[in-house]
Write a structure and sequence with these properties.
Shape: elongated
Mean pLDDT: 86
Strand content: 15-25%
Structural class: alpha+beta
Low-confidence stretches: none
Distance between the termini: 25 Å
Radius of gyration: 18 Å
Oligomer: single chain
Largest sheet: 3 strands, antiparallel
Number of helices: 2
């Protein structure tokens, strides 16, 4: 494997993992914010493509996250960060 390709792969992995961790931290802080603002129950997405479900009622509150869409978002951000400079360099 060539050194430039190896560095691009490591850059992709670093960015993807950092994006996933950032999304996880943002979503970890959501329950406190939702409770503070007294947000009613809701869901983001449907069926297999749901991302977030928030339940807030008299019995208590809970939050659920679907990891697969978050991982897909992180991978897309990582890929675009690595591929955009490659596409720009080929145009010139």
């Amino acid at each position: 494997m060539k050194a430039p390709l190896r560095s691009k792969i490591w850059k992709f992995l670093r960015i993807s993992v950092l994006t996933l961790l950032t999304l996880a931290l943002v979503f970890a802080g959501l329950p406190a914010l939702f409770l503070l603002l007294d947000v009613p129950s809701f869901a983001v997405g449907e069926d297999a493509l749901w991302v977030l479900r928030w339940q807030n009622d008299a019995a208590g509150s809970s939050i659920e996250f679907n990891l697969w869409p978050l991982m897909a978002i992180a991978l897309i951000i990582g890929l675009t960060t690595v591929l955009i400079p490659i596409w720009r360099s080929r145009k010139h």
